[in-house]
């Protein structure tokens, strides 16, 4: 009886219906589906997918599930997998080709875009040929194996008037994009320190590592991109310590453990903690600290609402995500939708050419610091800048 006086005499049906919080991005998608919300009847994009390996399988899954695209071609050189891929995904009307037959994709006027998820050393050739054939391009990083050839790819995209999108998927992760928005809104003031932890699980195969482009251009570019995207500025010097604890990785001249310090012109300090081998799951954390407080994005747990307790050892919580396809599943899906919107001209790409080129330059500086044990200054964060007219110009003359 003590709480009777607090009884609400007004029915909840007579009150305004509460709105879902913006953080519930899945409910927002549900509402769009439920109300059949769409801006206009846009044509379905016809796609070709190059490569069905580590990243390609993720993109294939999202392409098959997306009502806004139709997969027409798959280009992959492991022909022994073709029948299994066709049967598993029910791709009865998809044409399978080897890389030697890829001209069929470029010469097909019905193909609107290609998704490049093949090995790193093949990216530049596919990107250039697809653009020259007037196809939009979605490419896993890197666009090319060095900044000069990456510039040429962007120049080709500008000349033909088709989008070239570099797939830095972490920008589309809901938690990371929320942190970026809150930092840019000034919630913690001027950022003093920003930190990332990225420890890979499981340990990649040696065959993959040998063709990946190395830990700096394969792994660390994601953290560099994430930090510079959140801050909206590029570092002017870096200091790196790196080591190979795993003999097989040391034997191929690469590293498995790296710590990077970055200094930004505004005075912000950055830190990146990277490992190729985490025994406890895919460890991905972000912390941004300023005079007004701190914002973090911690590890996600698949079954975060379930705990167990046996004996006196205390509660046991579920593990974190095992690897990148599960941890960044939502980011990959949102990334594809963003690319579709870019191709349709509905939005501008949030991954700009000058940002991609800057990340390449910074990663190269980090590699130099690791090899020389010296602080490396980056006086020109990128040798090329995208002008307002779409041209690429030398930073010295810009």
Automatic annotation (TrEMBL):
Gene3D superfamilies hit by this protein: Dihydrodipicolinate Reductase, domain 2, NAD(P)-binding Rossmann-like Domain
Domain called Gfo/Idh/MocA-like oxidoreductase C-terminal: residue spans: 180-378
UniProt KW Oxidoreductase keyword: yes
Keywords: Oxidoreductase
A family per Pfam: GFO_IDH_MocA
SUPFAM superfamilies: Glyceraldehyde-3-phosphate dehydrogenase-like, C-terminal domain, NAD(P)-binding Rossmann-fold domains
UniProt region (Disordered), positions on chain: 1-22
All residue ranges annotated as the Gfo/Idh/MocA-like oxidoreductase N-terminal domain in the record: 46-166
UniProt keyword Protein transport present: no
Name of the featured protein: Inositol 2-dehydrogenase
Organism: Xylocopa violacea
Lineage, highest ranks first: Eukaryota, Metazoa, Ecdysozoa, Arthropoda, Hexapoda
């Amino acid at each position: 009886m003590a709480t009777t006086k607090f009884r609400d005499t007004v029915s909840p049906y007579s009150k305004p219906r509460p709105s879902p919080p913006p953080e519930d991005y899945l409910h927002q998608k549900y509402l769009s589906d439920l109300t059949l919300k769409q801006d206009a009847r846009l044509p379905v994009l016809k796609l070709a997918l190059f490569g069905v390996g580590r990243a390609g399988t993720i993109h294939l899954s999202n392409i098959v599930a997306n009502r806004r695209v139709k997969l027409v071609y798959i280009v992959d050189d492991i022909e022994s997998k073709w029948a299994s891929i066709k049967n598993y995904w029910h791709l009865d009307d998809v044409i399978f080709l080897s890389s030697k037959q890829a001209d069929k994709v470029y010469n097909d006027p019905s193909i609107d875009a290609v998704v490049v998820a093949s090995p790193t050393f093949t990216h530049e050739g596919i990107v250039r040929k697809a653009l020259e054939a007037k196809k939009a391009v979605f490419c896993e990083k890197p666009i090319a194996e060095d900044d000069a050839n990456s510039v040429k790819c962007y120049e080709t995209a500008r000349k033909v008037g088709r989008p070239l999108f570099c797939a830095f998927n972490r920008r589309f992760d809901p938690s990371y994009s929320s942190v970026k928005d809150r930092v840019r809104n000034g919630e913690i003031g001027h950022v003093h320190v920003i930190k990332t932890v990225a420890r890979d699980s499981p340990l990649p195969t040696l065959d993959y590592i040998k063709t990946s482009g190395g830990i700096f251009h394969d792994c660390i570019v994601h953290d560099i991109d994430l930090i510079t995207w959140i801050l909206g500025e590029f570092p002017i010097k870096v200091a790196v310590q790196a080591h190979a604890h795993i003999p097989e990785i040391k034997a191929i001249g690469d590293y498995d453990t790296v710590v990077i310090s970055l200094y930004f012109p505004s005075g912000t300090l950055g830190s990146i903690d990277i490992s190729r081998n985490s025994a406890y799951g895919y460890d991905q954390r972000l912390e941004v600290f300023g005079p007004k407080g701190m914002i973090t994005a911690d590890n996600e747990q698949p079954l975060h609402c379930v705990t167990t307790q046996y004996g006196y050892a205390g509660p046991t919580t579920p593990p974190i995500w095992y690897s990148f396809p599960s941890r960044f599943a939502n980011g990959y899906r949102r990334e594809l939708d963003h690319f579709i919107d870019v191709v349709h001209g509905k939005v501008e790409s949030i991954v700009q050419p000058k940002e991609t080129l800057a990340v390449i330059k910074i990663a190269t500086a980090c590699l130099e610091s690791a090899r020389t044990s010296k602080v490396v200054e980056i006086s020109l964060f990128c040798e090329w800048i995208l002008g307002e007219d779409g041209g690429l110009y030398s930073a010295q003359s810009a």
